[in-house]
Amino acid sequence: xxxxxxxxxxxxxxxxxxxxxxxxxxxxxxxxxxxxxxxxxxxxxxxxxxxxxxxxxxxxxxxxxxxxxxxxxxxxxxxxxxxxxxxxxxxxxxxxxxxxxxxxxxxxxxxxxxxxxxxxxxxxxxxxxxxxxxxxxxxxxxxxxxxxxxxxxxxxxxxxxxxxxxxxxxxxxxxxxxxxxxxxxxxxxxxxxxxxxxxxxxxxxxxxxxxxxxxxxxxxxxxxxxxxxxxxxxxxxxxxxxxxxxxxxxxxxxxxxxxxxxxxxxxxxxxxxxxxxxxxxxxxxxxxxxxxxxxxxxxxxxxxxxxxxxxxxxxxxxxxxxxxxxxxxxxxxxxxxxxxxxxxxxxxxxxxxxxxxxxxxxxxxxxxxxxxxxxxxxxxxxxxxxxxxxxxxxxxxxxxxxxxxxxxxxxxxxxxxxxxxxxxxxxxxxxxxxxxxxxxxxxxxxxxxxxxxxxxxxxxxxxxxxxxxxxxxxxxxxxxxxxxxxxxxxxxxxxxxxxxxxxxxxxxxxxxxxxxxxxxxxxxxxxxxxxxxxxxxxxxxxxxxxxxxxxxxxxxxxxxxxxxxxxxxxxxxxxxxxxxxxxxxxxxxxxxxxxxxxxxxxxxxxxxxxxxxxxxxxxxxxxxxxxxxxxxxxxxxxxxxxxxxxxxxxxxxxxxxxxxxxxxxxxxxxxxxxxxxxxxxxxxxxxxxxxxxxxxxxxxx
Length: 701
What we know:
This protein is 67% helix and 3% strand. By secondary structure, it is mainly alpha-helical. Strand 1 (64-68) and strand 2 (72-75) form a beta hairpin. The radius of gyration is 36 Å and the shape is flat. The N and C termini lie far apart (88 Å).
């Protein structure tokens, strides 16, 4: 029977989906192999999860053939124009960088063969080339069901710095073992090779920071230098002096637009940053002049820059004087004079690295004697902690990738426990962004899993939603950290997504919190999640603390639910005047007939202050429905002016409302004269005249 075009398209789509499923599982195994040994439980679990779908695909369709490009992959059963963009760019680029252009997995492939391929992919590129290439290594290890086609590229066409490497250098991604080894190899080279590496790295960086200013670009470049510094201290202590010397000379070789600004930044940072100081200390006098020349690139700023250099190197005055005197010699022919007398160059202790750890990291152990074992451990943590933290994030994401493909309940539950532990540690480290992202992904996964595994995933979310977590997120939001991380929307999305789970925690924190700023942040969150949650919110109206009740009233006023009006009527009777005042404010802001009706009832209260406040807020409301009742107050016969404060407030309220209907009574008051209570009547008449003018301007009468 002939196959119809529609059936053929459907079959091809299903095959593509199966192939992508295999690649996703392969990617999880690839990521695990980069972090753990082949014998590690997570590595073995990833290989086990890959085995079933791979065998199913090979049994149905025969060999899996993938064509590898820099960031894309296509399959042999697809037309060329159907080549797809693949999100698995890390794994794909690792193959591409190791010159693999086609990967073929034949029926009969076993996990140990996949493991051999993965162990080759996590080698450095230089190691793979030195050992003969991927195909040769697979042959050496007896891999018969996985073959690769390699394409040799000229060295100048193979970029040393890919996106992954750049992120690691900038401290934005984990520095994996193969990245570290490649950087070590670069640092061991001669200054010209190191300079070429820096130019390529920073060139890629500048192209990626098109929307950033010059200072942000410079700081990003210096962050890359700090990554190299961590590697030197951590991996190459015996070669440190030679490598710092080569690195300093390499920085001198950097051309425009990279070199001069970076060298200028190094001079400015020398008193606060051990790396900058180390680079300067390895420069000869003539080279130092070149660096100083870059720091003083704008002659008009020379004195200011000289002061910055003198202060930053205040704990090393001889070096500061050497630098600034070099600057003088360079700039004198251009008519620039630096006032040395105005600079703190002699014995000034400006910004010392005064801790024992700071002295050791700055390369001055002679100041503190031989470092203790504890100090060495502390220094190592300071240098590599960022990498460990980011590697942990990678491990969390790998565990989640694997979780999507596990069918066995016991294995699924075990991996969920691992994921919860990792995310709990992320919370302890303040890494809220990865927590928010992974919880959102976990909830999406739970909603699409079969009932039993979905329930396990949902229970994991419940285990993470603790009171301490909610408190930490509120603190993070209030401190502005989320804004600096561009995570404000993520935090609010988290609270909205888990509103039923977090509402009680937020209300408890609101009642216990004494800091006004934190309470304000909690109120902002409760407004975002409070719709259709009025009963839960109003449970706190009985709290004995007036400010708690006032906060709840403010939240209720921001909600559109008409049910809040009943509770606002009750808080108008609260014993604390501050709560009553806040209630009037939110009623006036609601600008609805029902809210205006509640406020107008207050005009009948015996308490004079309540009546006066009600009239004021009716004027603030901007609602013309308040005009008739306010006019009635002014039309009442009151020759003894017993309601003088109320009448005064009412005239001002009508002026704010600006209604044409108020003009007749206001004009009568504006022209009325009386022999009694002259001062009060005169004030009311003046207010009425001002009100008439205000209303006429507004209505054009």
